Amino acid sequence: MTVPERRVRDGRARRRFDLRATTVTFGLAAIALVLAGWVVRMVYDTAQRRPVWVFVLVLGVIAAALLGRRARGRHTAARAALRTTDALAAATATTLHALEEDHEAAPARCASGEETTVVLTTEYEELDPDEFEEAIADLCRRDGCLDVEVVGGAGDLGADVLAVTPDGRRIVIQCKRYGEDHKVGSQDLQRFGGTCFTVHGADVAVLVASTEFTAPAVDYAERCGIVCVNEERLRDWCQGGGPAPWELPPPGGDGVELDDRAVW
């Protein structure tokens, strides 16, 4: 008796290509990429103020990428994409909230004299020259300057802080962190005046000091158009009681007395 041969089916069921699930997965991935690009562009301008948050976001993106790579199956991939989107959205919201709080609290911290990275302390002798330059740069950032850069050091040719004022002018600042018994003399102004305009292309040249200026120094500043910020005016600038140096007219030709014009 002949027994009919039966075909043995492979126990492994073939998976069908699911166009809908694939479309959903790629759609979620595209949303995540767009959101990631927006986050990167948003945090680019704030990286100098809050670098810790940028580091957190980068770690979050790396973790999400690893999670997506390990996911298996369309359901797992979809859940991983959703988790990635949610994580990026949460990180973005947290960053925006932190930046908003920092922006609102900065003026209050400056007025109270609290020691932070963006506020000058009233006791300038507590700061070394490098910290003094960083503090002046932070004041420029606080008051709306762009492209603020600390360049002081060997070979700086008289410039310690470079920035662009809110109205688009290039400002070059030299910082002098001296003791109370050491005034800024005319030689300091002459060295700065010889490079601030011709070498650094300043529209506004400012010399900020933690002490006072001698009379010859003030006279030289008046003739060369350099704005001098002494200890008193620096404290007013820090506490918000006086305008920023670039908001004042340059010395010379404005009918203002010399002492009130050059030494802002």
Total count of domains: 2
Going by CATH, the architecture of the largest domain would be 3-Layer(aba) Sandwich
CATH class of the largest domain: Alpha Beta
> Span between N and C termini?
117 Å
Helix proportion of residues, in percent? 40-55%
Mean pLDDT: 75
Biggest sheet layout: 5 strands, mixed
> Count of helical segments?
8
Low-confidence stretches: 105-119, 253-262
Quote the CATH topology of the largest domain: Trna Endonuclease, Chain: A, domain 1
Number of strands: 5
- Proportion of residues in β-strands: 5-15%
Order of helices and strands: HHHHEEEHEHEHH
Radius of gyration: 30 Å
Shape: elongated
Any chance you could write out the topology, listing elements then pairs?
Elements: H1 19-44, H2 51-70, H3 73-112, H4 129-142, E1 146-150, E2 161-164, E3 170-176, H5 186-193, E4 204-209, H6 215-224, E5 226-229, H7 231-239, H8 258-261
Parallel strand pairs: 3-4, 4-5
Antiparallel strand pairs: 1-2, 2-3
Structure notes:
The chain is an alpha/beta fold and 264 residues long. The protein has 2 domains: 19-112, no CATH class; 124-261, Trna Endonuclease, Chain: A, domain 1, CATH 3.40.1350. It contains 8 helices and 5 strands; from the N terminus they run ααααβββαβαβαα. Helix 2 runs antiparallel to helix 3 (73-112). The longest helix has 40 residues, at 73-112. It starts with 18 loop residues before the first helix and ends with a helix. 29% of the residues are buried.
